[in-house]
Each structure stands twice: as structure tokens, then as C-alpha cells.
Amino acid sequence: MSEKAILCVDDEAIILESLKEQLKRRFGSQYLYEMAESVEEAWEIIEELQEDEIEILMIISDWLMPETKGDEFLIKVHKKYPQILTVMLTGQADNLAVQRAQDQANLYSCLYKPWSEEELVNIISSALN
Predict the structure, then answer these.
(1) Which domains can be identified in the chain, with CATH numbers?
(2) Around Cβ 52, how many Cβ atoms within 10 Å?
(3) pTM of the predicted model over 0.90
(4) What is the pLDDT along the chain (129 residues), one digit of tens a residue?
(5) Long-range Cβ contacts of 45-53 (<8 Å, 24+ apart)
(6) Which residues pair with 112 in a beta bridge?
């Protein structure tokens, strides 16, 4: 079992399924892939992984979600866990949200919907190397 995880957060299950499928196809069992349909669920997963001493390498979060926007979530994650790399996934983020995440969440990259599997893999590969 891998001791390193990638967490994906999006309120659309089909997006999460697509991300997981693409990640597994490219990286196989190299990492654990955790999926959360809300920020609240993401925090629960983060806490569980921390308790199990599984290192979260990266969080890929949608920007437009109910309750909490992705940039706000990633900023909070960065304050608590500055070592976790962050990627924002969006079809609609405004430039201010992206800039805010870059400035306050050490955003590694912004991935725009619809993305290609190659884009996703290139961002993750370069971030984790």
C-alpha cells in the first residue's frame, strides 16, 4: 500500500471519476487516490490520512463549489499543511481567485476544464519531481 496520496475535490462525481481514472492509468498504484465531493468531506479525508500517517502530496480542487470556493479551501490547506502542493481545477475561476491562490496557497498550477489527460499528467509529474 502506498504511503503517499493525491486528493481530488470537486462537487461533480463525474469529474472525480475522470480524474481518478486518468491518475490510475498514468501513475498506477504509485499513490493513493482520494476523492471528495465537498470541502467538508475533503477535510475529513485529510484528517484520516494524517492519522494513518499517509503523506498527502497534492490536492487538486475545483474552484466553483457550494459553500466554499476552491481558492479559499486551498489557502486554508496551505496555512495548515504548507508542504502539500495545490492545483486548482476550474472552468470558471476569475483571475483574482487564481491570483489569490497563487499568492496565499502557493498554487502550483491552474488546470482549466476541459483538460486533457496529458495536461493533468504533465502538471502532476512536474510538481512531484
Answers:
(1) 4-128 (3.40.50.2300)
(2) 11
(3) yes
(4) 569 999 999 999 999 999 999 999 999 999 999 999 999 999 999 999 999 999 999 999 999 999 999 999 999 999 999 999 999 998 886 789 899 999 999 999 999 999 999 999 999 999 998
(5) 45/7, 46/7, 46/77, 46/81, 49/5, 49/7, 53/3
(6) 90
